[in-house]
Amino acid sequence: MTSILQSSVAGNYEKSAAKSADNSTPEYALLGKNASIVAKQVRTTNSATTAFRLMAAAQHILIEHNVLGTKGGKHRTRMCHAVRHKNAEHITLKLSIDEKHSKASLSGVQTCGSFWSCPVCAGRLAVKRGGEVAQALAWAEKEKHIPLMVSMTARHDASMTLKDFKARFKQAWRKFTQNGSWRRLKAKLEIKNSIKVIENTRGEHGWHYHQHGLLFAPKSAVAKLDENDLDNWQAEMRRLWMHCLAAAGLDGIPDIALRVSFHGNVGADYLSKLGLKQDDQTNARWEVSGAQNKKGGRTVWNLLKSASQG
Predict the structure, then answer these.
(1) What distance in Å separates the CA atoms of residue 240 and residue 237, rounded to the nearest whole number?
(2) Spatial separation of the C-alpha atoms in residues 18 and 26, rounded to whole Å
(3) Which residues in the chain come in under a pLDDT of 70?
(4) Which UniProt keywords are present, listed alphabetically (predicted)?
(5) How do beta strands 284-286 and 258-261 pair?
(6) Is 37 contained in some domain?
(7) By three-state DSSP, how is residue 235 classified?
(8) DSSP letter for each residue of 101-120
């Protein structure tokens, strides 16, 4: 299957960050070759202010507890927006004011690009991914395809660590996509393109790690099937997912573990999984303060906000 999209300034920084204007500081190397110089357009709204305050809180926690990155070095988010980029001569702050908005543009700084640990970068990435999703939906409309949203999860409890649950879930997903039954199910609706995103919240039963995907099926292929055919198609997907969960040491309630949405608002629903809210048909915005799962699950930003407030 072709994936159209495979779907992350104030505070207590380290002493070396304070010397970032000095060419002798080695801190620019923390983010490696993937770091880039960005001109971060920040509209001075409560959302932007909240994002930067929470980023400072995250950096304080990472430094205080000496949290390491996946490769054992200093965590990337520790220096996000705090250090001059190695290829920049200086950091530039530009202010512009018009009748409606005040804007600040910051360039020449390092960014961590983390969707899960940095609320500032997460917002930028979410908006970028949202634009790519919008392009995919526009492509589907032009090519006369229908987007179907498939939500997949598994049973979990508070005793399960996120690391273990995530590893088992990914194992189940690999088994699912490699199974011949899945290839036959895709062929039945002539599905060749897809996108997916991971959503992760924390509730009374522990971490709720789940996946949402958009599958694009030609209208002509869907039109060949009646309601019973579509119900059977979904039931077969569900049986396959339950089988793969069991093989990975997980289980779930069938009707909850896999759900397929065929309604016309799946595009807006999918964007909401990225934390985006649509203002109208063409514009979407990301608000870190509003990223709350409607079923009561708390996002990482909700948890970070609580931690920052003690």
Answers:
(1) 5
(2) 12
(3) 1-46, 99-102, 105, 263-264, 272, 274-296
(4) DNA replication
(5) unpaired
(6) no
(7) helix
(8) -EEEEEEEE-----TTT-HH
First to last CA, the chain: 46
Q: Are 99 and 37 in contact (CB under 8 A)?
A: no
Q: Which amino acid is at 286?
A: W
Domain holding 268, by residue range, is 144-285
What tokens appear for 174 in the block? 């690999």
CA separation for the pair 95, 105 (Å, rounded): 6
**0.85 surpassed by pTM:** no
Q: Which residue, chain included where needed, has tokens 């990914």?
A: 170
Q: Can you say whether residue 74 is alpha, beta or left, with left for phi > 0 and alpha for psi between -120 and 50 degrees?
A: beta
- The answer for residues whose C-beta is within 8 angstroms of residue 184's C-beta and 6 or more apart is none
**Under 8 Å between Cβ of 200 and 207:** yes
Q: Are the CB atoms for 172 and 154 separated by under 8 Å?
A: yes
CATH code at 169? 3.30.70
Q: Is residue 243 part of a domain?
A: yes
In this predicted structure, what is the pLDDT of residue 104?
72
8 Å CB contact between 201 and 154: no
Q: What is the largest CA-CA distance in the chain?
A: 69
Q: How far apart are CA 123 and CA 258, in angstroms?
A: 28
The answer to whether the CB of 258 falls within 8 A of the CB of 151 is: yes
**CB under 8 Å to 261, separation ≥6 — which residues?**
148, 149, 150, 151, 269
Let me know if residue 159 belongs to a domain.
yes
Q: Looking at the domain assignment, is residue 104 inside a domain? A: no
User: How far is 133 from 279, CA to CA, in rounded Å?
Assistant: 16
Residue 6's DSSP bridge partners are 196
DSSP element (H, E) containing 146: strand 145-152
Nearest CA to 194 out of 125, 260, 123, 122 is that of: 260
Q: Which amino acid is at 194?
A: S
Provide φ and ψ at 235, rounded to 5°. Answer: -65, -40
Q: Where are the beta strands (DSSP E) in 170-268?
A: 193-203, 206-218, 258-261
Chain position carrying tokens 């702050």? 93
The C-alpha atoms of residue 84 and residue 29 are separated, in whole angstroms, by 10
